[in-house]
User: What shape does this take?
Amino acid sequence: MRSVLLLLEQDELCVCELNDVIGGAQPNISRNLGLLRDSGLVIDRREGQWIYYRINPELPEWVSEILQAAKTGAIGHEPYKSDLIKLKEITNGTESKCRT
Assistant: This one.
Protein backbone atom coordinates (compact mmCIF):
# COMPACT_ATOMS: atom_id res chain seq x y z
CA MET A 1 0.00 0.00 0.00
CA ARG A 2 2.89 2.36 0.71
CA SER A 3 4.15 1.90 -2.85
CA VAL A 4 0.70 2.56 -4.28
CA LEU A 5 0.31 5.74 -2.22
CA LEU A 6 3.72 6.98 -3.35
CA LEU A 7 2.86 6.26 -6.98
CA LEU A 8 -0.32 8.28 -6.57
CA GLU A 9 1.80 11.15 -5.28
CA GLN A 10 4.61 11.06 -7.85
CA ASP A 11 3.02 9.53 -10.96
CA GLU A 12 6.04 7.38 -11.78
CA LEU A 13 8.85 5.94 -9.67
CA CYS A 14 11.53 3.37 -10.22
CA VAL A 15 12.11 0.43 -7.93
CA CYS A 16 15.26 2.01 -6.48
CA GLU A 17 13.35 5.17 -5.52
CA LEU A 18 10.61 3.17 -3.83
CA ASN A 19 13.23 1.11 -2.05
CA ASP A 20 15.04 4.26 -0.88
CA VAL A 21 11.80 5.67 0.55
CA ILE A 22 10.28 2.52 2.03
CA GLY A 23 13.45 0.66 2.93
CA GLY A 24 13.57 -3.06 3.25
CA ALA A 25 14.84 -5.56 0.75
CA GLN A 26 14.74 -4.52 -2.91
CA PRO A 27 13.67 -8.03 -4.06
CA ASN A 28 10.59 -7.78 -1.80
CA ILE A 29 9.58 -4.43 -3.26
CA SER A 30 10.13 -5.73 -6.80
CA ARG A 31 8.07 -8.84 -6.07
CA ASN A 32 5.23 -6.78 -4.59
CA LEU A 33 5.28 -4.41 -7.57
CA GLY A 34 5.20 -7.44 -9.87
CA LEU A 35 2.07 -8.68 -8.12
CA LEU A 36 0.49 -5.23 -8.45
CA ARG A 37 1.41 -5.23 -12.15
CA ASP A 38 -0.01 -8.73 -12.66
CA SER A 39 -3.26 -7.59 -11.02
CA GLY A 40 -3.47 -4.60 -13.40
CA LEU A 41 -3.21 -1.97 -10.68
CA VAL A 42 0.14 -0.64 -11.92
CA ILE A 43 1.97 -0.67 -15.22
CA ASP A 44 5.68 -0.57 -15.83
CA ARG A 45 8.24 0.46 -18.40
CA ARG A 46 11.93 -0.25 -18.71
CA GLU A 47 14.52 2.44 -19.31
CA GLY A 48 17.99 0.93 -19.47
CA GLN A 49 18.50 -1.03 -16.30
CA TRP A 50 15.70 0.74 -14.43
CA ILE A 51 12.05 -0.30 -14.25
CA TYR A 52 9.56 2.50 -13.65
CA TYR A 53 6.08 1.92 -12.25
CA ARG A 54 2.94 4.02 -12.29
CA ILE A 55 -0.71 3.57 -11.46
CA ASN A 56 -2.56 2.09 -14.44
CA PRO A 57 -4.40 5.03 -16.06
CA GLU A 58 -7.08 2.65 -17.38
CA LEU A 59 -8.35 1.60 -13.96
CA PRO A 60 -12.10 1.80 -13.48
CA GLU A 61 -13.19 5.06 -11.89
CA TRP A 62 -14.37 3.30 -8.72
CA VAL A 63 -10.88 1.86 -8.17
CA SER A 64 -9.28 5.28 -8.66
CA GLU A 65 -11.74 6.76 -6.16
CA ILE A 66 -10.84 4.11 -3.56
CA LEU A 67 -7.13 4.77 -4.07
CA GLN A 68 -7.63 8.52 -3.70
CA ALA A 69 -9.67 7.95 -0.53
CA ALA A 70 -6.85 5.81 0.88
CA LYS A 71 -4.36 8.56 0.05
CA THR A 72 -6.55 11.19 1.71
CA GLY A 73 -6.91 9.01 4.78
CA ALA A 74 -3.16 8.46 5.03
CA ILE A 75 -2.21 12.15 4.94
CA GLY A 76 -0.65 13.22 8.20
CA HIS A 77 -0.20 9.65 9.43
CA GLU A 78 2.91 7.54 9.68
CA PRO A 79 4.54 6.04 7.75
CA TYR A 80 3.02 8.02 4.85
CA LYS A 81 4.04 11.35 6.37
CA SER A 82 7.71 10.34 6.58
CA ASP A 83 7.54 8.62 3.19
CA LEU A 84 6.47 11.90 1.55
CA ILE A 85 9.36 13.80 3.11
CA LYS A 86 11.86 11.20 1.91
CA LEU A 87 10.22 11.07 -1.53
CA LYS A 88 10.62 14.82 -1.96
CA GLU A 89 14.28 14.60 -0.96
CA ILE A 90 14.89 11.85 -3.50
CA THR A 91 12.93 13.26 -6.44
CA ASN A 92 13.79 16.96 -5.99
CA GLY A 93 17.45 16.45 -5.24
CA THR A 94 20.28 14.44 -6.64
CA GLU A 95 19.84 11.44 -4.35
CA SER A 96 18.05 9.26 -6.90
CA LYS A 97 20.34 6.69 -8.46
CA CYS A 98 18.06 6.10 -11.41
CA ARG A 99 17.50 9.70 -12.54
CA THR A 100 21.12 10.63 -13.06
Q: What stands out?
A: The chain has a mean pLDDT of 92. The helical segments are 2-10, 15-22, 26-39, 61-74, 80-92.
